[in-house]
Amino acid sequence: MTEVSSNKMFGGWQKVFSHQSKELKCTMKFGIYLPPSANGGKVPVLYYLSGLTCTEQNFVTKAGAQKYASEHGIILVAPDTSPRGVNIEGEDDSYDFGSGAGFYVNATQDKWKNHYRMYSYITEELPALINEKFPTISDRQSITGHSMGGHGALICTLKNPGKYRSVSAFSPICNPMNCPWGEKAFTGYLGSDKTAWKEYDACELSKTYSGPQLNILIDQGKADNFLTQNQLLPESLVQVCSDKAIPISLRMQEDYDHSYFFIATFIEDHIKHHAKYLKA
Ligand SMILES: N[C@@H](CCC(=O)N[C@@H](CSC=O)C(=O)NCC(=O)O)C(=O)O
What ipTM was assigned to the predicted interfaces of this complex? Predict the structure, then answer.
């Protein structure tokens, strides 16, 4: 693991590291914010998964989360969104597939399956590295994310009951099987058999979830162009959660769009939400 940058912020340190990933077979970067309390002992961790086109930098530089992580004594980890520089033909052709668009799945299709294993990277390899190298309380981790990363946060939680103490999301892709972004990504990474898609769809996973009680927090801007293009479908997840008695709070925010201005506005609420469970 190599330190790429280090900046003091709100009494703690915002750092970026690179490391060699076994799952993705390439060099990956992640951002990590270490609050002042991490100097004197072990603290909980909140993972943040970014959306399409992002690297670890978007959250680090635009969300304004560090102030609240400093106050609540939580480590923030922001990974990249796909393998990088793996030289697969076509990987840089579009913004919503390939580089910057790993969709947090383990690909099964020949062209992609050797490198595109973001699900295992996020749920296994990266937490193992973070817990080995930083002062974490390893059984106190939570997860959040935005858009494609909101989908990632939801599926990582629903597929691993008890692994994350809490989950939240900003404008998540809630039902990727039934939206254009998800259909394109799942066809490319998982093939055309839709049975395999269900393993990575938050609505489908909620139908069979039987782990510890979740209290899902979602913020969604009403002026989000991707909401009106039916890419996000939060109402489908609310319907399933209501059928299955899974507590979910979908807060529809007047005039807010899909941007990091929206995320920066509500990140304090999300960190407070996670702090409640991480510190219980
Ligand atoms: N380039 C695309 C849209 C790209 C975009 O809006 N990406 C979002 C996430 S969308 C879902 O995963 C994002 O977070 N962008 C980075 C940022 O800093 O805003 C287009 O033009 O339509």
Answer: 0.95
